Amino acid sequence: MRLTTKCLLCATIISLAGCGDDNPVRHEANPFADQPAKIAGVSLDVSNQLAEVALDELDAAGVRWIAVTPFGWQSRFDDPDIRLRTTRVRWGETDAGLTETITRARARGIRTLLKPHIWLTQDVPGQWRGTIGFDTDTEWETWEADYRTFILHYALLAEQQQADMFSIGVELGRATRERPAFWSTLIGEIRQIYSGPLTYGANWDDAVHVGFWDQVDFIGIHAYFPLTHRTDASVDELIRGWRPHVRLIDRLCATWDRPILFTEIGYRSIAGGAVEPWNFDVQAAVDVQEQADAYEAMFRVFWEQDWFAGLFIWEWDADVRPGDDLGDDDDYLPQTKPAQRVMSRWFGAGR
């Protein structure tokens, strides 16, 4: 039954998205095409020194990749100064913590995406890292110089610690649209330091505006696409909700000749968690099944596609243990919830 359903769903998506044999570039574009497994990843939140049991739990869940995230600190969207902190931050964000996490994960056969991130410390309504931008070239150039220092620091760390992939940025929509020459030059500089594959994590509504996909190896998307207006949508309804987004994603893949990687995707365990998946402020009743259904729909739509490289689920807390009670948790964590079983089944846990 499951195989038949999967084949029918795959045929439906191919019909909708145009990703059948008339688009042969998919296999050639994917640098992981000769590998048997997708990128089965989670964004790993490491507050304290990584415990061995945390690695055991990743392995048991079928996780083969982790994304680790150090931050550059910027006060506001319109402040051009970025502060690089390699100490006096949480252990997992220090250079020493990143190094140990990458090394110990590798020893367990788990690969790492190093994904540096800009954090705005002051909350301004309607503004976020996607709106970082300036009115003068002088301000832009100040920000670009700081960003270059920030990202090249982590590119060097990624090379020295043999991280398996590196992200050149995350959700910097206005900056990537308005300053294309900066990004083109920066990618070249990163390539001179880091020898592995590159990606960039575009916000779900901004990926079509990025102009440098041909300079990186994966089209990275933070895939918080809205799928429904209902608070209790079924798996089938959520699959239908993916249709317009699949068309857009397929066009990106075909236009740029690059595989698709969901550098982030996640759903809160609330009623209506697939209405605005990006919204971490909305108040709603806890609904762990709704979260699980959203993941099930996503995996059915994408996991079998040749042009889909894989994903990183947002997020996995390294301090949560199997016996912990998260029954009233309304956050993105899949751990100890039905969503973890869905994730682990598709990741092939136990195989």
Task: Give a concise summary.
38% of the residues lie in helices and 17% in strands. It is an alpha/beta fold and 351 residues long.
What would CATH call the homologous superfamily?
Answer: Glycosidases
CATH architecture: Alpha-Beta Barrel
Would you give the CATH topology? TIM Barrel
**What's the number of structural domains?**
1
Helix content: 25-40%
Question: Major beta sheet, specifics?
Answer: 8 strands, parallel, barrel
Stretches with pLDDT under 50, minimum 5 residues: 1-30
Helix-strand makeup class = alpha/beta
* Termini gap: 20 Å
How many beta-strand runs? Answer: 11
- With strands numbered from the N-terminus, the spatial order across the biggest sheet is 1-2-5-7-8-9-10-11
* C-alpha Rg (nearest Å): 20 Å
